[in-house]
């Protein structure tokens, strides 16, 4: 993480503040970190390994303390999963689950799944936003009784579903 690609953006924070770019990284390199790693295989692997090692810290706790959360599900999609460290630990601990690991194509390109772990590559920002009626159908079909969609900061929403 001391690679100049990663440290240089810290020298551009004051330039980033008044501009309309999303991050100091974007201000420095002209793309998001994720687009950048698409063309830099070495950095791609480094970033993915770093996130994977970070994810292992919480994985044990999730598997140990959140058992009841996973009991009611048959399947799980881990969006922005990276190389799937968390998903792998979850399907190992709860083998009745089928899990889809979704991340950018260059992140999951060389990864092999198993019978109950499938890797899928794509861009989560491509496609169409669901309207409220479609969300409601999704929740009710999944067995939930009620839901609440609350706007946060104008562009994002928090969705709560109730059983
Ligand atoms: C902060 S990492 C989280 C990784 C993993 N969930 C973890 O906890 O270790 C964010 C992930 O989002 C992925 N990502 C970024 N933009 C994306 C997009 N537009 N579509 C799909 N995945 C994306 C990146 O490749 C990266 O693996």
Blueprint of the fold:
Elements: H1 4-7, H2 13-16, H3 24-29, H4 33-38, H5 41-65, H6 67-71, E1 75-79, H7 85-93, E2 98-103, H8 105-108, E3 117-121, H9 132-141, E4 146-152, E5 156-162
Parallel strand pairs: 1-2, 2-3
Antiparallel strand pairs: 4-5
Helix pairs in contact: 5-7
The structure holds S-adenosylmethionine (SAM).
S-adenosylmethionine is lined by residues 34, 51, 54-55, 80-82, 86, 103-104, 107, 123-125.
In short:
The protein has 163 residues and is an alpha/beta fold. The protein is built from nine helices and five strands, in the order ααααααβαβαβαββ.
Can you put this structure into words, describing what you see?
With 163 residues, the chain is α/β, with parallel strands linked by helices. 45% of the residues lie in helices and 18% in strands. The chain has a domain at 129-163. The chain is globular, with a radius of gyration of 19 Å. Helix 5 packs parallel to helix 7. It has helices at residues 4-7, 13-16, 24-29, 33-38, 41-65, 67-71, 85-93, 105-108, 132-141; strands spanning 75-79, 98-103, 117-121, 146-152, 156-162. A 3-stranded parallel beta sheet has the order 1-2-3. Strands 4-5 form a two-stranded antiparallel sheet. The structure holds S-adenosylmethionine. Keywords: Methyltransferase, S-adenosyl-L-methionine, Transferase. It holds the Pfam family Methyltransf_2. Residues 10-125 form the O-methyltransferase C-terminal domain.
């Amino acid at each position: 993480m001391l690679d100049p690609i990663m440290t240089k953006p810290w020298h551009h924070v004051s330039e980033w503040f008044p501009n309309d770019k999303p991050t100091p990284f974007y201000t420095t390199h002209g793309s998001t970190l994720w687009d950048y790693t698409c063309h830099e295989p070495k950095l791609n692997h480094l970033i993915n390994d770093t996130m994977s090692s970070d994810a292992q810290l919480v994985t044990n706790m999730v598997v140990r303390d959140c058992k009841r959360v996973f009991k009611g599900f048959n399947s799980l999609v881990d969006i922005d999963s990276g190389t799937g460290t968390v998903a792998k630990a979850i399907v190992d601990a709860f083998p009745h689950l089928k899990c889809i690991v979704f991340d950018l194509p260059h992140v999951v390109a060389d990864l092999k799944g198993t019978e109950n772990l499938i890797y899928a590559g794509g861009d989560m920002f491509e496609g169409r936003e669901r309207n409220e009626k479609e969300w409601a159908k999704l929740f009710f079909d999944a067995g939930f009784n009620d839901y609440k969609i609350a706007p946060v900061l104008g562009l994002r929403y928090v969705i709560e579903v109730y059983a």
